[in-house]
Amino acid sequence: MNYGLYKKMEIYRAKPATKREMTQFHSDDYIEFLSKVTPNNMNQYQKEQAKYTVGDDCPIFDGLFDYCAISAGGSMEGAARLSRDKCDIAINWAGGLHHAKKGEASGFCYVNDIVLGILELLRYHQRVLYIDIDVHHGDGVEEAFYTTDRVLTVSFHKYGEFFPGTGDLRDMGSGKGKRYACNFPLREGITDENYKRIFEPVINQVMESYRPGAIVLQCGTDSLSGDKLGCLNLSMRGHANCIRFVKSFNLPLLLLGGGGYTMRNVSRAWAYETGLAAGYELGATLPINEYYDYFGPDYKLDVRSSNMEDKNSVEYLERIKNVVLEHLREIGGPPGIQMTDPPLLPRDEVDMDAEEEERRDPDDRNRRLWDKGRQRDDEYSDSEDEGLGGRKNERSHRAGATTTNKNNENSATGGNAAMTAEGKRAGAGFGEDEEGEAGGDVGEEDEDEDEEMADNEKMEEARKVMASVGSVSAGGVGAGAIGGGDDTGDAAGRAKSTDAGEKTTPGPVPTTGVAGPSNVTNGASATTAVQPGVPAGSGDA
Fold this sequence. Notes:
Blueprint: H1 19-22, H2 28-36, H3 46-51, H4 64-83, E1 89-92, H5 113-122, E2 128-132, H6 139-144, E3 151-158, E4 181-186, H7 192-210, E5 214-218, H8 236-247, E6 253-256, H9 263-277, H10 314-329, H11 346-359, H12 362-372, H13 394-399, E7 402-405, E8 410-413, H14 449-470, E9 473-474, E10 477-478, H15 487-500, E11 514-515, E12 527-528
Parallel strand pairs: 1-6, 2-3, 2-5, 3-4, 5-6
Antiparallel strand pairs: 7-8, 9-10, 11-12
Helix pairs in contact: 4-5, 7-8, 7-10, 8-9
């Protein structure tokens, strides 16, 4: 903060990982155990502690699960932002817990945030490269991807009677992942010069043979000189040179923390490397801050190498390097994979909607909103203000609803379409004989003035019929809903034909629900859904 680096980057408070997200790699019962165990109830979980190797170098403490969720959430969020091109480099110094296994804790690592971050990257990238410069072997990450060629793991670590005891040169993966696990075992006391001599050629060959789409770099600082648990002899700048070199490939880069047990050196190294990631090299003078006294006696931003013996001879390093390079050349080029659209998580949909709306052209947004309000040509209309031919017809609206059956291009009038004994039907704008032949087109205006006058006379006749039908009511409910199954509405619709002694024949059946006029009393409903093929007024709707 006192260097002002926060002004050169974007700072995000990542959402803690959920149990469901953690179980993308870890077993359900293991994550459930971590969420429940506390120092107060740990005696109730003796059997589970032995099963999950919790209690020795992985103690139980207050806030354990919250700590795991924050660490994992930071790495997953960083990976997600890289995949969506929201940043070039993402940093989570609280991550890098590379020893955690699928169902057990190890080396003060409970949840493997690195594996979860890589899984997030694999949703968008064909291949991911993982590099580990911690003094300890990255066994948890290697084990997770030991049988796949989509992740290549490279670990530079102390080997031989040293935790965790894995990472032999001959461990190269198995099955489809053969030669996609690369281990470079080191001896005590390696210097900056020798480390650079092996690191850069190996990574160059990895990039040439594997061609990853993204890189995850675990920056454990227990490989620095003077670490309480480490036994290497790197200076701060020698350690940071690895970040500088990997950054030069200009690929999406996720920087993670890891080990480190001399606290003042950990903070020095990660502050300096944060500056490199942001494009700034920090000076050696420390700014005055509340922790200034921790960095005495020199009060400098530097970790220097010591005079410890380097047991890594040039011959030994060259021999190991040649074996590693030969294994990498045998890969023979990047493996191919059929990519599909990545499965979406809830946070993806929110981010994608927001991004799409930001990129969308303003005119296009207006067109989309306009189209949402448009009615398709093939849709039926229930509009109250539409009469014949799309013209507003106030009188027919008050007297009884008029609808057009678009399937057979015939017209039904009012609550009942009254048919005469001879099969003649009073229509609006056209007639129909006994054989059902149409005498005119619906909704078209006649060009001839004489025909238009005749049509107007027929319309007036139809209105009188509808008015007389609509004036009959039963039980206080006005007729107006087509195909009403209600006894009162049905009685009202049949009243005219019964009084006249005529045979009642139902009219054409609409295929949609139609709402009648709103002249409803006594709480009765006049809205009825009509099923296709069911005569109006049958009561089967």
